[in-house]
Amino acid sequence: MWTPEHRRAADRRGLRYPSDLIDAEWALVEPMIRPARRGGRRRSVDVREVLNAIFYVLSTGCQWNALPRDLPPKSTVYDYLDLWDWDGTLERIHDVLYVETRERAGREASPSVAIIDSQTAKAASKGGPRSTARASMRARRSRAASAISSSIRSAYC
Fold it and tell me: What residue spans of the chain are helical by DSSP H?
């Protein structure tokens, strides 16, 4: 239930973008981001801004080319997204923010009940997105196979 305390905690009006991290969220996330490597050049990008840019793309669904100019360049943001996905940083950030959000709402850290509708159950029994994607895609043929079959057809016709 929304109480005045919950509303104040969820208020994002003072931020540049609604997807930006508030200071309390950044305090939770910052220890999970590895520091720059020793030696070499110093990190020139603000990692908090990179994370804000990732959250901006995820929350708005905008194209990488449409990132606002006051956020880091799209190539930098994408490179960090790729690195953090590979090394598990994104999953750790998600888990910490998820638990914090549930606890702030007065719920247990992990849900105790799940609701599955009939559509979800049907899709899961058939194999879900994998089988759907396979069924809706045309079979691929290599160019070599196409050339061979067309040369065979022309030889016999």
Answer: 4-10, 23-29, 47-60, 74-87, 89-104, 118-126, 129-136, 143-156
- pLDDT tens across 103-154, in order? 877 777 777 777 777 776 666 666 555 544 454 445 555 555 545 444 444 4
Q: What is the pTM of this model?
A: 0.62
> How far is Cα 74 from Cα 54, in angstroms, rounded to an integer?
9
For residues 24 and 103, the answer to whether their CB atoms sit within 8 Å is no
State the helix-helix crossing angle for 89-104 and 74-87, rounded to 10 degrees: 90
Write the CA distances from 113 to 48, 105, 107, integer angstroms: 34, 16, 12
- Maximum separation of any 2 CA atoms in the chain, in Å: 81
Residue identified by tokens 């990190």 is 43
Pick from 25, 82, 34: which is nearest to 57 by CA?
A: 82
